[in-house]
Amino acid sequence: MAHRIADRAQGLRQSDIRRFSAICAAMKGINLSQGVCDQPAPDAVKQAAKDAIDADHAVYTNLRGIIELRQAIARKMKAFNGIVADPEREIAVNVGTAGSFACVCLATLNPGDEVVVFAPFYSYHVGMIRLIGAEVRFVNTHPPAWQYADAELAAAFTDRTRMILVNTPANPSGKVFAETELKRIAELADKHDAWIVTDEIYEYITHDKPHISVGRFPEAAPRTITISGGSKTYAVTGWRIGYTVGPEEVIDKVACINDLLYICAPAPLQHGIAAGLALPDSYYDEMREDYRTKRDLMADTLRQIGFHPYVPDGSYYMLADFGEGRYRDATHAAESILETTGVATVPGSAFYPNPADGETQLRFCYAKKMPELQEACRRLRKLPSGSKTW
Ligand code: GLN
Questions:
Q1: Distance 17 CA to ligand 1 centre (A)
Q2: pLDDT tens by residue, 159-182
Q3: What lines the ligand 1 site, CB under 6 Å?
């Protein structure tokens, strides 16, 4: 029956992120695999969504999202990201950041175009680019600081490059891109007339390094499309509210494609996210501190069992290396740890163009309620510590 499936879909299979999440759910384990972020959402966000349901905000919204949300996004983009965007013309609300990215890819890429992507990568980015027939050119970043060679970046651009994708803070490495890196990316994108698409969904979760949006630089602004959303910031990953900010001509197409694919994002939940965007700075400061505590607990636990954690500067994921000789490969490590402790992780191989590069790594998501994370760490500490010392 394979011939009845479109060529573009033949290679698709459930991601490792979801696979380990599903096995974990079936065995009622603790899910440190998929970045589900199962922590309570702020009351103001929940209340505004409930009020919107009670007020019968139940029908299709504007294809770009409700204007109150777009205005709130515009205020936040100016204050936090340093980007001035007109809520009528330069902002579109989408169905999650994945929905934003799908619309952006469909609006900007032709089959055969090339996209420059940093590795390790988030597999959903690469999956979407390939689904529409574009090709990926990888630039490798290396632990512990997740730096890359400038020559490799420059060489990744060709006359077919249509886009460079930035993900800062990055999933899965936690890399927070520096101003010099972003300015160099802007320079190369300009030279090759490519879009800069930047997924900043973890923008509020940074430690010691500032979050910088490439779209704030005047030289980059005309070719930068910034995507983000409410999922991680307000712990509502299942609400699916994302947004896209960029030049009018691309936002216009993103809005039309959003309309074709989804009609609009869930109406009452748009009201909830608008309320979230009005939360005071203290909310974000507390969230950041909470993640720092969780990050440090995760790293300490992994060190105690002989893993080498690459402590992230941002996001809520941690890649850790378990060395040679302890497990056959990353999938075996994830399966074995899930079986013996009931704690799910993602094999590092899922994030590398050459899976061999991630065969001694696992990704741990620590966006959990503290008691659950503590229980996961208690279980992990029971693993025999490896022979390798770091
Ligand atoms: N972004 C989250 C992760 O990397 C969730 C992704 C997903 O469910 N596809 O785990």
A1: 7
A2: 999 999 999 999 999 999 999 999
A3: 17, 34-35, 122, 124, 171
Question: Nearest C-alpha to atom 8 of ligand 1 is from which residue?
Answer: 34
265 CA to centre of ligand 1 in angstroms? 19
Closest atom of ligand 1 relative to the 201 alpha carbon: 1
E-strand spans in 205-345? 224-229, 242-245, 308-310, 317-321, 343-344
Q: How far apart are CA 348 and CA 345, in angstroms?
A: 9
d(CA 71, CA 87): 5
Task: Convert the pLDDT of each residue in 60-84 to its tens digit.
Answer: 999 999 999 999 999 999 999 999 9
Give the dihedral sign, CA 76/80/85/89.
negative
Sequence spans of domains, the chain: 12-41+282-380, 58-276
DSSP designation for 165: E
pLDDT digits (tens, 9 = 90+) for 317-372: 999 999 998 999 999 999 999 999 999 999 999 999 999 999 999 999 999 999 99
Q: Measured from the CA of 124, which atom of ligand 1 is nearest?
A: 9
Atom in ligand 1 nearest the alpha carbon of residue 34: 10
Q: Which atom of ligand 1 lies nearest, measured to the CA of 35?
A: 10
Whole-number Å distance between alpha carbons of 115 and 356:
22
**Atom 1 of ligand 1 has which residue's CA nearest to it?**
35
Spacing, Cα 236 to ligand 1 middle (Å): 13
State how far the Cα of 2 lies from the Cα of 137, in Å rounded to an integer. Answer: 28
Mean pLDDT of the chain: 96
Tell me the CATH class for 12-41+282-380. Answer: alpha beta
pTM above 0.90, yes or no: yes
Q: How confident is the model at residue 38 (pLDDT cuts 50, 70, 90)?
A: confident
Domain 58-276 of CATH type 3.40.190.80: no
Counting ligand 1 atoms within 8 A of each CB, the residue from 33, 125, 128, 171 with the most, and so the one to mutate, is 171
Task: Of 235, 178, 246, give the one whose Cα is nearest residue 201.
Answer: 235
